[in-house]
Amino acid sequence: MGTYDTEAIVLRSIRYSEADAVLALSTRARGRVSAIAKGARRTSSRLGGRLQPGVRALVTVHEGRGDLGTIRSAAVLDAHAGLWVAGHRLQSAGCVLETVMKVMPEGEPSEEAWNLLVRALGLLARAPAPPGPARLDPLVLGVQAKLLVVSGLLPVLTACARCGAGPPLPAFSAAAGGTVCAACGAGADPVEPAALAAFAGLVGRPLAEAPEAVPPPAAAGVERLVGLVLREHLGVRLRSAAPL
Ligand SMILES: [Zn+2]
Question: Is 166 helix (H, G, I), strand (E, B) or coil?
Answer without folding.
Answer: coil
